[in-house]
Amino acid sequence: MCLGIPGRVLATYGSAGLRMARVDFGGVRREACLAYTPEAGVGDYVVVHVGFAITTVDETEAARTLAVLRAMADAVAGELGEPLPAGEPAGEAGP
C-alpha cells in the first residue's frame, strides 16, 4: 500500500535539471520533485509519496485527507500502548 500526504507548495526551483518544490505538510517542510506534476505552482496542493508529488488536489481535498490521516493516527495511538524503555528489546522478559 502506498501512502501519499498532501502539502502546500511554498516555492519552486530547479535542481539538477529537475523541477523541485519546498512543500509544507502542516508545519513540517520538505523537498519534493515536481516531475510528475508540471502544472503545480506556488500555493497549490500536491500529494507527495517518497519525495515525488504524484498529483495535485484542491485545498478542500487536502484538508479532508489530512483530517482522515490525523484521525487514523489518533485511533492507532491508543492501541499501541506505552513505548518500550530505550535498550529493552520487544518480547524479551527481564530476570
UniProtKB/TrEMBL annotation:
Task: Give the family, as the similarity comment puts it.
Answer: Belongs to the HupF/HypC family.
Q: Which GO terms describe its molecular function?
A: carbon dioxide binding; iron ion binding
Write the protein's name. Answer: Hydrogenase assembly protein HypC
Listed PROSITE patterns: HUPF_HYPC (PS01097)
Q: Which gene encodes it?
A: hypC
Query: What species is given as this protein's source?
Result: Streptomyces paromomycinus (Streptomyces rimosus subsp. paromomycinus)
GO BP terms in the entry: protein maturation
**Pfam families of this UniProt entry?**
HupF_HypC
Query: Which SUPFAM superfamilies did the record assign?
Result: HupF/HypC-like
Q: Which Gene3D superfamilies match?
A: 2.30.30.140
